[in-house]
What does this fold into?
Amino acid sequence: MLMEDGALKGILTLEDGRPCLLGEAGRKYLEDEIIWRGYIKHFSGRRVCARRLAQTDYETLRPIVIIWPDDPGPEEAFVDLYFNERLVKYRTSFLGHLAVNVNGEIFNFSHLMNENELLRHEEYFYRPALGEFAPHPQTGGYNTDNPAKPYYDKFGRRFMRTIHVLRVTGLDTQILSQIFHEELEKITSTRADPKKPGAYPAFNILTRNCATIIRDGLRKAGFGDIRGIFPRDLFVSAACYFMRLADKTSAKAFVYRLGQLCVSEAPQSAMPPLLNPMNIRKNSKLKKYFKT
It folds into this structure.
């Protein structure tokens, strides 16, 4: 079945040991494509969606195929905060990571220029560890020594980490979208620093990181009581804030976890510490709100 955006729908199937997408009336798709083993491990026998990306596989030089679960999306406008646990193989990931989804547009901010990007749901969560998305085959991580074949090690976050989600509905998503679009434009138009190739020059661990950019955007939208400098602390603060707001307004808020889908390309993620003692108490209260 062909979707409006050109994606295919069907059941990920193994036929004589070869993966393919089984569509309506037994029609087979993607028989001659490279399908990442992570998809086969976690999605075999499930209804999925699939499409080709602009990026190419380094071995075949053909477009990379991305596959993701065929799950229904939200029925009303929403804002998600994604607190990503830390990647244990990167020192710079010690405090974890934060991203924001405004009604289907995922804004990702980073100390690396190429990771400041606007992503669709499937690309943020389910990109395969192939081509430029994969870890370097020798070093096992980020490596751009060969500009013709960079390895950014930024495949689907569900395969790299456990993710904690705060979902809020009933907000003005148009205002928030505009704020984060402007922020992303400001970053991507920043002149590169020749002394720090690939880095976002204005990034600052205390004042301008993945969490503070999102925090300041939320404050600009009128949520001034949200506090925090680092990802986990800001997530706890925002979750408690929106839980209180939901008690007083028509907004709704809840939290849940997306467990890591383990693959050989990524070790198990780990929970970073809370650095603000006030948030330790808030977090203990927050646990009862988590949905499974």
Observations:
- The chain has seven helices and twelve strands.
- Helices lie at 37-43, 121-126, 157-160, 173-188, 210-220, 231-248, 277-286.
- The radius of gyration is 20 Å.
